[in-house]
UniProtKB/TrEMBL annotation, chain A:
Source organism (scientific name): Salisediminibacterium beveridgei
Membrane topology: Multi-pass membrane protein
Protein name: Unspecified monosaccharide ABC transport system, permease components Ia and 1b
A Pfam family reported for this protein in Swiss-Prot or TrEMBL: BPD_transp_2
Any single GO CC term annotated in Swiss-Prot or TrEMBL for this entry: plasma membrane
Keywords linked to the UniProt accession: Cell membrane, Membrane, Transmembrane, Transmembrane helix
Automatic annotation (TrEMBL), chain B:
CDD domains named in the record: ABC_Carb_Monos_I, ABC_Carb_Monos_II
Predominant location: membrane
SUPFAM superfamilies: P-loop containing nucleoside triphosphate hydrolases
PANTHER family, per database record: CARBOHYDRATE TRANSPORT ATP-BINDING PROTEIN MG119-RELATED, GUANOSINE IMPORT ATP-BINDING PROTEIN NUPO
Protein name, per record: Unspecified monosaccharide ABC transport system, ATP-binding protein
Lineage: Bacteria, Bacillati, Bacillota, Bacilli, Bacillales
Protein family according to the UniProt entry: Belongs to the ABC transporter superfamily.
Gene Ontology MF: a single term: ATP hydrolysis activity
TrEMBL record, chain D:
Name the UniProt record assigns to this protein: Unspecified monosaccharide ABC transport system, permease component 2
Record localization: Cell membrane
Keyword Membrane (UniProt): yes
Broad class of the protein's primary localization: membrane
Recorded GO CC terms: plasma membrane
Keyword Zinc-finger found: no
Length: 354, 509, 372, 321
């Protein structure tokens, strides 16, 4: 059964079918609550594609999701479950913004430096669980969960005591460290689309490249699948665990930097988690932990969340319905076995022919 | 007819393959019936059908003449069929008793009556001479004892038809002897046994009749008393097989590996290798013989840099490699064929091509400036697969879906191709059929003849005797003696392995 | 709950350009011009026909039993009084929804769009900049452009929470038996500091020796944390605790009810709305002594109405204070003694005529306390 | 000394109360993970439990059950949690879904569905507040023991002691009964269990179902004792903490008990310390991160490696090996 239907085509078909089922489930929920699903979905679609502004916002929204998805997926490929993307993203956001306003430099240095600061902060936050896992075999899931809370409180502490500007936030990053783009914004009718979107695309490429084209990536995947055999093959398993968590954290940190330098251009006291990191788990898994898949699943996530606003405005559908749809899509993607099974029942001659 | 088991015209398909094609197997009451076939011939599948784990597409099963429908292992249990699986079905963290009673636990109120259970187990193990400690955890006991626990599981359920799927693959010679005795006891108690093994000698020793299958098809059933090794092997493979390892005399050169005063602890801090000295010369195969658990694993791990030695030195052609990391040891010229190919030898989710490059991926020309060249990697892997006869649909096939023999060939190709100075081969033929074994032994001898040193660690007495030039016997972490392979025999080795001493004057280094 | 007889209650003050609020003549002149521009073409009829007033909620949603709900109540009331006017809201699931939601309303040509909550400050600034022909209003903060100037198409609605908190502080001080009271804050910020400072000043106005325990949960949503903090404060001797901590405050009520049931005489003070209407019940009454109420409903109603009538207070800071009845203590007064009410009313008058200036920050409070 | 005791009298019950929902939920996680199914969906189960606990209490109040309502509400939450967990069970057992993915989906579904239902039922984003509550009580007799009594048996919720008793029950069931042996065997070596005639999938369904029952109770206890009502933010992260407690406790009921108490203690300390003279001047951030840092330190220092059930996070497929 296992390798029965693993054609390329099926790889694409399954998510599409899952998305269809997800929407079907959402429609049932809406019917149950006395709403018209067709109106709702028309509103949803036009809330993504109906106006260039919404489309721009969708792309803006998916930017950090791509990063958090990449972060989760990268660790996953190396055999680690990184639930700490949330915290890594927060510290990255914070560090990038602080570098963004605290120093004066020409843009060509300042912007990369601020992004780098985000990457380093995220990497640092990822290294702690990586190191504990590698040296003391402490389960990374616990440490990353704890590190999320620590990140939130520590960042808030520094904002509150060192960088508070107005109300809840720091000052704005200087233009030389800003990713915001009048051009992109103008192109999309004032959406907050910024250059970070293209950096995110580059990051997808980078993740694919690291994992599949470099020596290190080969080792990460090898360690992820089988630590023992990797050790026997002479790989430094501990170093690989630590550095894969660092890279994962760096992806998350840069994701935070994108939000900090592009969307908001400041960082404010976090009164709760951003959820960007937790959503990353779903984005990564929905995207099957591969770069292209993550890009599309981030688009789906970003689009659904953006379109939810229009569904609410035009069709009066509570935004929670979108969450239900997302959940059902994830279920159906995860249960692709079901889809394969149905498929094999529907087309029995195909099976015989093999 | 007094058949206890009749399987007629069994057909079992897996996607893309017919594992059993119209196979017939008839087992008489009170006999040991051997089932023989190459790796992947369909033996385990047939037995799993009998035991109710798989449902056949065609065919009928009769137990004691009655047609039955074995839908799941519970049905098999009720019919008195028990199975000792090829890969042990034991829960590592449970005790022997817990494993045995699992699924039919004696109860006292709502709890398990663990006392009664232990008593029952002790009673059965006494009756059949199956020595076990009912209260130890599986993960703490030897493979032999684990197997006895497996057998007890079936007996506890009152099985009188027992299936043994490759029971001897992982046992020491001593344990094999005990097992054979146990099987005889069982027959005397009126049970019937189906025995799967690749070791023809064992079949000849204990079995009454033997059914041979090849690529899913039944070839026939013979009386063992009218057969010999050659005829059985031919039936199974369809060609002639040589059992003697063909090799010329060794031309030993200077020492390649020399180990001095090596002491290695295991995780518990016990010295498993204790002040050990050893030398392997170029152009010779040095076999390490010993009962499992006498420090072989720790020795190999220390030599290959996987485990840190407490003291002592290891030199390779004069270069001190003690305390070096695995990669450095490899680069110094040591190759390692690990004993557990799934756990240590392969990344099963990688393609077979990637697996073949697991030791060299980082070197030029496969990696330049940290960037992999997959084209070159696969080209190389395909060359190797060609040369070492690794049979798979393509180099992109996942390692998991290769048969054991082909997996092992891939590892050998990978390790040997690097032109190492020293090859450490740990149990290189475990679980393989005679064809594959022949191939691997031939390769090791070839490498010897190219002037390499080969350190062969094996629990298989035949293998050590046939392949090695010299044999070092390890006992409690020390080399107790080194003998010339041509001048020793099974009995002498067995004695040494048990810690005995050779009579003086027979030395030949 | 919202009368429409208080159209001119709010006092426009100018807080821009660092000159502490009072005189605003110049700005008003500018704004007047602007307002006319803005309202050209959508002059509403008497019943509000053709006028639309909508809001974007904070993550709490329009039924958060707090300021979002209050704001929506004001809009609903406005819609009832002017049936021709269109009122609506958009709910934000998280902070990333603010900008798109505000934009969505602006794009629909909404005449006035309210951003509820100071968290929307920057989004309002951007969206207002991008839609200069639309009117916006923000609740709980003041939005300025990058140079610190007021923005012509944004009205700023603030409340004198410190003044309201002062009064409940007075009531607490009048009621405490143990001479110790407490304050639980949510996530520490400038806004919540106003509650704290005002409350402490109110307590100490009555009796400077009363001890005040304060603690920030640094979370607006963790009831169990709120309960633990309250437990500690009550155990430490406080018998009345005031909260400005949203959902965390539920834990305070839980703890107060619990202690009540076991015979302890403790009280809690609610915030934003008359919380005794929905919370605090125990078997023999209600543990909520009083609540500091903040009339967001009234402010939203009023700004909508003004805008409809062509008087959009763009570029202004409207501070709804005690004297406008924009803040105060709750209508439910069953548990409050007459003396306390009297004292509170007395202080209220003093604050209104300027005899008392209530501190809003830690520094102002320290200064104020030293001057006692 | 007196102060020290006074602090302990405050912290210990607080720790026990804080530990209760985590502990209950971790017991749920234990059943599912011992059966080999990773349960990252504990968060969602707690959300569902909190929702059902409050809605159930309100419902039973309406039916005139009075003081029994919260208890019935907790049972209702257990039931609903069990039903809700079947999503995870069907996906990860029958449909062979990746267990982590399915758990993540469960979390999404729980938040979406509960808030949606709250809107449908109450026409607002949060439920009404329950009026019949659970109160802290002194455990009769035991609370009279000097020092110990005041520390452990005074002003605690009955739910806490019920939860502690349930830990004992869980231990007994998992380690002393045939059911427990079978459950564990399925999580360690499903094929072995299968050959012994154990219905592997049924055991897994039961394991996941019990995780729903206990996770539901955990969420309900939290909502009923602390919050008093339910909204989208009532449960934020407690389920993940419970997962951490389970792993910290090495998948053992007593271990999880220790871990939950440890965490509750650290949290109570962090809250209370801010009201203790001397500690008041320590910057608050140190107190806020204390529970998390202590947990990491404890793991790194004392507990170290935890070995999960051997077959955790693998799908059992008869046909494969
Ligand atoms: N679970 C399975 N899924 C798919 N194919 C299988 C499965 N199990 C067995 N097969 C197929 O059935 C054939 C027979 O396998 P089986 O395990 O019965 O061989 P065997 O004779 O026991 O080999 P060995 O001597 O190595 O144990 C294999 O070649 C394989 O192709
Ligand atoms: N799950 C599977 N799906 C498809 N084919 C399989 C599967 N498992 C095994 N095979 C096929 O079965 C054949 C033999 O497998 P099998 O595991 O019996 O070999 P083996 O020599 O017994 O290995 P081992 O020594 O590990 O027991 C191979 O050709 C392999 O392609
Ligand atoms: Mg095999
Ligand atoms: Mg087999």
């Amino acid at each position: 059964m296992k390798r029965l239907l693993t054609g390329k085509l099926f790889g694409i078909l399954i998510p599409l079918i899952a998305i269809f089922f997800g929407f079907l489930a959402g429609a049932i929920v809406m019917l149950f609550s006395g709403n018209n699903p067709i109106d709702a979905y028309v509103a949803l679609i036009s809330g993504i594609f109906g106006d260039i502004y919404y489309f721009g916002e969708t792309l803006q929204r998916m930017t950090p999701l791509i990063f958090s998805g990449l972060a989760v997926a990268f660790a996953f490929r190396a055999g680690l479950l990184n639930i700490g993307v949330e915290g890594q993203l927060m510290v990255g956001w914070f560090a990038a913004v602080v570098v963004g306003f605290a120093i004066e430099l020409p843009m060509i240095i300042h912007l990369p430096l601020a992004i780098l600061a985000g990457a380093l902060a995220g990497a640092l936050w990822g290294t702690v669980p990586g190191y504990l896992k590698a040296t003391l075999e402490v389960h990374e899931v616990i440490v990353t969960i704890m590190m999320n809370y620590i990140a939130m409180h520590v960042v808030n502490h520094f904002i509150r005591n060192n960088f508070l500007e107005s109300g809840q936030r720091t000052e704005f990053v200087s233009p030389s460290a800003s990713l915001a783009s009048d051009f992109l914004s103008g192109l999309t009718d004032f959406s907050r689309l910024h250059w970070g979107f293209f950096i995110a695309i580059a990051a997808c490429f980078l993740m694919w490249f690291i994992l599949w084209k470099t020596k290190r990536g080969f080792e990460y995947r090898s360690v992820g699948y089988n630590k023992n055999a990797s050790l026997y093959a002479g790989m430094n398993v501990k170093a690989n665990i630590v550095s894969s968590m660092a890279i994962s954290g760096a992806f998350a940190g840069v994701g935070g930097a994108m939000v900090g330098l592009g969307t908001y251009r400041y960082v404010e006291i976090f009164s709760s988690f951003t959820n960007l990191g937790f959503d990353g788990i779903a984005v990564a898994l929905l995207g099957n932990s591969n770069a292209l898949g993550i890009f599309f699943s981030a688009f789906l996530f970003g689009g659904l969340k953006e379109g939810a606003g229009n569904m609410q405005a035009q069709a009066g559908i509570a935004p929670e319905v979108v969450e239900i749809i997302i959940a059902m899509i994830i279920f159906f993607v995860a249960s692709s076995y079901l889809i394969r099974w149905i498929y094999s029942k529907v087309q029995p001659n195909k099976k015989e022919g093999k | 007819m007094e058949y206890v088991i009749e399987m007629n015209g069994i057909r079992k398909e897996f996607p893309g393959i017919v594992a059993n094609d119209n196979i017939t197997l008839q087992v008489k009451q009170g006999e040991i019936h051997a089932l023989l076939g190459e790796n992947g011939a369909g033996k385990s599948t047939l037995m799993n059908v009998l035991f109710g784990l798989y449902q056949p597409e065609k065919g009928e099963i009769k137990v004691r003449g009655e047609k039955v429908n074995v839908t799941d292992p519970n049905v098999a249990n009720r019919l008195g069929i028990g199975m000792v699986h090829q890969h042990f079905m034991l829960v590592q963290k449970f005790t022997v008793t817990e494993n045995i009673i699992l699924g039919s636990e004696p109860k006292k109120g709502m709890s398990i009556d663990i006392r009664k259970a232990a008593q029952d187990v002790a009673e059965i193990s006494d009756r059949y001479g199956l020595r076990v400690d009912p209260n130890s955890k599986i993960e703490d006991i030897s493979v032999g004892m684990q197997q006895r626990a497996e057998i007890l599981k079936t007996l506890y359920r009152g099985a009188n038809i027992l299936i043994f799927d490759e029971p001897t693959a992982a046992l020491t010679p001593q344990e094999i002897k005990e097992l054979i005795q146990i099987m005889r006891n069982l027959i005397n108690e009126g049970k019937s046994i189906i025995l799967i093994t690749h070791k023809l000698k064992e079949i000849l020793e204990v079995a009454d009749r033997c059914t041979v299958i090849r690529r899913g098809k039944g070839i026939g059933t013979v009386d063992v008393s009218e057969s010999d090794q050659t005829s059985l092997a031919e039936m199974m493979v369809g060609r002639e097989i040589s059992f003697e390892v063909e090799k010329g005399p060794p031309k030993p050169g200077e020492a390649i590996l020399s180990v001095k005063g090596l002491t290695v602890e295991d995780v518990r801090g016990i010295d498993m290798v204790d002040q050990l000295d050893l030398e392997v010369r170029s152009g010779e195969i040095l076999g390490i013989a010993g009962v499992d658990g006498n420090g072989q694993t720790e020795l190999v791990e220390a030599l290959t840099g996987l485990r840190e030695a407490k003291s002592g030195t290891v030199t390779l052609s004069g270069e001190d490699i003690s305390g070096k990391k695995p990669r450095k040891v490899t680069e110094a010229g040591v190759s390692h064929i690990p004993s557990d190919r799934h756990k240590h030898g392969l990344v099963l989710e990688f393609t077979i091509g990637e697996n073949m490059m697991l030791q060299t991926y980082y070197q030029k020309p496969y990696t330049r400036n940290g960037i992999l060249d997959y084209g070159k990697m696969y080209k190389k892997a395909e060359e190797l697969m060609e040369e070492y006869d690794v049979r798979t649909p393509s180099s992109m096939t996942l390692a998991r879906s290769l048969s054991g023999g082909n997996q092992q060939k891939a590892i050998i190709a990978r390790e040997v191709d690097r032109s190492p100075k020293l090859i450490i081969a740990a149990q290189p033929t475990r679980g393989l059929d005679v064809g594959a074994i022949e191939f691997i032994h031939k390769k090791l001898v070839e490498e010897r003849d190219k002037g390499r040193g080969v350190l062969l660690v094996s629990l298989e007495m035949d293998e050590v005797l046939n392949v090695s030039d010299r044999i070092a016997v390890i006992y409690e972490g020390k080399i107790v003696d080194i003998v010339d392979a041509k001048e020793t025999n099974e009995n002498e080795l067995g004695l040494l392995m048990a810690g005995g001493k050779r009579e003086a004057g027979e030395t030949s280094t | 709950a919202c009368g429409n007889d208080n159209n001119d209650n709010a006092t426009p003050v100018n807080e821009g350009n660092n000159n502490e609020g009072n005189n605003n003549v110049e700005n008003n002149v500018d704004n007047a011009d602007n307002n006319n521009d803005n309202n050209e073409g959508n002059e509403a009829t008497g019943d509000g026909e053709g006028f639309s007033s909508k809001m974007v909620t904070d993550v709490g949603g329009v039924d958060d039993r707090s300021f979002n709900e209050s704001a929506w109540a004001g809009l609903t009331m406005f819609g009832e009084d002017y049936p021709g006017a269109e009122v609506d809201y958009l709910q934000s699931s998280d902070s990333s929804d603010y900008a798109p939601n505000l934009n969505r309303l602006a794009r629909d040509g909404t005449d006035i769009t309210f951003g509820i909550g100071f968290l929307m400050e920057d989004e309002i600034r951007d969206v207002a900049g991008q839609n200069p022909d639309q009117n916006f209003a923000i609740v709980d903060t003041v939005v300025t452009d990058e140079d610190g100037n007021m923005i012509d198409n944004v009205a700023n609605i603030t409340f004198a929470e410190h003044e309201g908190s002062f009064l409940v502080g007075v009531i607490a001080a009048m009621h405490t038996e143990t001479n110790e009271v407490g304050f639980i804050g949510g996530v520490e910020s400038e806004l919540i500091k106003k509650f704290e400072s005002g409350f402490k000043a109110g307590v100490h106005s009555v009796d400077p020796d009363i001890e005040i325990a304060t603690q920030y949960a640094q979370d607006f949503n963790d009831a169990s944390l709120g309960q633990q903090i309250a437990d500690g404060m009550y155990a430490g001797g406080a018998d009345i605790i005031y909260h400005a901590a949203g959902g965390t405050g539920n834990g305070l009520f839980t703890e107060a009810i619990d202690r009540r049931e076991s015979g302890e005489e403790v009280w809690a003070i609610g915030v934003d709305q008359d919380q005794a209407l929905t919370e605090g019940e125990w078997s023999e009454g209600n543990v909520i002594l009083t609540s500091m109420v903040k009339r967001v409903d009234q402010s939203v109603y009023q700004v909508s109405e003004d805008t409809m009538n062509g008087n959009f207070p763009g570029g202004e800071v409207l501070e709804f204070a005690l004297e406008d009845e924009g803040v105060g203590f709750a209508e439910t007064r069953d548990n409050v003694s007459d003396e306390a009410i009297e004292a509170a009313n007395d202080y209220r008058d003093q604050i209104i005529n300027g005899d008392i200036e209530v501190p809003q920050t830690d520094d102002e409070y320290d200064e104020w306390y030293d001057s006692l | 000394m007196e102060l020290f005791l006074a602090v302990l009298y405050l912290i210990v019950p607080a720790a026990m109360i804080a530990a209760t929902p985590l502990l209950l939920t971790a017991m749920g996680g234990l059943f599912s993970e011992r059966a080999g199914i990773v349960n990252i969906g504990l968060e969602g189960l707690m959300v569902m439990g909190a929702f059902a606990g409050i809605v159930g209490t309100l419902m039973f109040e309406g039916m005139g059950m009075g003081a029994w309502s919260p208890w019935l509400g907790i049972l209702f939450a257990a039931l609903l949690g069990g039903i809700f967990s079947m999503f995870h069970a069907v996906a990860s057992i029958s449909l062979k879904a990746d267990q982590i993915v399915s758990g993540v989906a469960l979390n999404f579904l729980a938040t979406g569905l509960t808030v949606f239902l709250v809107r449908e039922i109450f026409e607002r984003g949060q439920t009404d507040t329950i009026s019949s509550r659970l109160f802290r009580t002194n455990v009769p007799l035991l609370s009279d023991i000097p020092i110990i009594g005041q520390m452990f048996f005074t002003r605690v919720y009955l739910t806490t002691w019920v939860a502690f008793l349930l830990v004992l029950v869980v231990w007994y069931v998992v380690f002393k009964t045939p059911f427990g042996l079978r459950l564990r065997s399925v999580g360690e070596h499903p094929m072995a269990a299968d050959t012994m005639g154990i219905n592997v999938n049924r055991m897994k369904y039961i394991g996941v179902g019990l995780s729903g029952v206990f996770g539901g109770m955990g969420g309900a206890v939290f909502a009923i004792t602390a919050a008093g009502n339910f909204a989208g933010g009532t449960i934020t992260g407690q389920g993940f903490m419970a997962l951490a407690v389970l792993i910290f406790g090495k998948w053992h009921p007593f271990g999880a008990f220790g871990a939950a108490i440890f965490f509750g203690f650290a949290q109570a300390l962090s809250v209370t310390a801010q009201q203790i003279p001397g500690l008041q001047d320590v910057p608050q951030v140190f107190m806020l991160i204390l529970p998390y840092v202590l947990t990491i330190l404890a793991l790194a220092g004392l507990v170290g490696k935890a070995t999960p059930p051997a077959a955790l996070n693998t799908n059992y497929d008869k046909g494969s090996r």
